[in-house]
Amino acid sequence: EAGRAGQSPSSQARFRRSISALFKHATLAGWVQLNPMTQSAITSKERGGLRAQRRALTREQAQGLVGAARALPEAPEPAGKRRDQRTELRDAVIVLLLVAVGPRVSELVRSNVEDFFTNDGVRYWRIFGKGGRTRDVPLPADVTRVLQAYLARGRPAVEDKALLLSWRGRRLARGDVQAVIDRVQRRVDPEQRRSVTPHGLRHTTATHLLADAVDMDAVRRVLGHSDLATLGRYRDELPGELEVAMRTHPLLRGETAG
């Protein structure tokens, strides 16, 4: 156990599965009388992909967060804050990009204004991802409108090419993005019982795109995964999804209940 202390939960889970398979075979073959792995409890930390607390937001939670982000530009001007200190448009852009596209937080904070371009009337975000790979992701119209408003009147007029800046003109860091999400979430859930992370929103994007039967390879390309196997780890279970799948079974449509 001590030798595996530095390994990730997923690596420990794979090790446990291998040992369990070995002892199962040994028991069936009569080499041992008892499989010790049946008495081995798995702690929540060791579960890895079997997350005790789901990372993805439900559709209602995600839509509530999006609604709060959309309303930010219309919020009344805070007392004591100058117009050039307002960040509502920027905060709306952050949340909408995270929910719509599901980028890694590192990809978001590294993005520059020049990474956004228009082709045939569609606004794209060129994302520079892992391993030097790039992907061009089309943005939904709602996101494009808020982005354009931010670039026109919400972003500080400085020479820095970064997309996301503090009102003082500093490129935002990961912690700044988390602070923005927390502020927007408090508008929906003042108690904020569970913090929503950028990675949780990445899971949310994958989960709901796949739940709406969006092509798996298209979702993979949006998220910037190198293969479909990686995408599977970002797909969280949604309440009632099996019932919905059976009600809309493609081979039984049109039948009436007897």
Explain this structure:
GO terms for molecular function: DNA binding. Belongs to the 'phage' integrase family. Pfam families: Phage_integrase. Keywords: DNA recombination, DNA-binding. The structure is a single chain. This protein is mostly helical. Helix content is 45%, strand content 6%. It has a 3-stranded antiparallel β-sheet with strand order 1-2-3. It starts with 8 loop residues before the first helix and ends in an 11-residue tail after the last helix.
The averaged pLDDT comes out at 80
Number of domains: 2
Largest sheet: number of strands, sense, barrel closure: 3 strands, antiparallel
Please provide the count of β strands. Answer: 3
**Oligomerization:** single chain
At CATH level 3, the topology of the largest domain is hpI Integrase, Chain A
- Reported CATH architecture of the largest domain: Orthogonal Bundle
CATH superfamily grouping of the largest domain? Intergrase catalytic core
Can you tell me the CATH class of the largest domain?
Mainly Alpha
Percent of residues in helices comes to 40-55%
The general outline is elongated
N to C succession of SSEs: HHHHEEEHHHHHH
Q: What is the C-alpha radius of gyration, as a whole number of Å?
A: 23 Å
Report the structural category: mainly alpha
Helix count, per DSSP?
10
**In percent, how much strand structure appears in the residues?**
5-15%
N-end to C-end Cα span? 57 Å
Keywords: DNA recombination, DNA-binding
InterPro entries: DNA_brk_join_enz (IPR011010), Integrase-like_cat_sf (IPR013762), Integrase_catalytic (IPR002104), Tyrosine_recombinase_XerCD (IPR050090)
Domain Tyr recombinase: 52-247
Protein name: Tyrosine-type recombinase/integrase
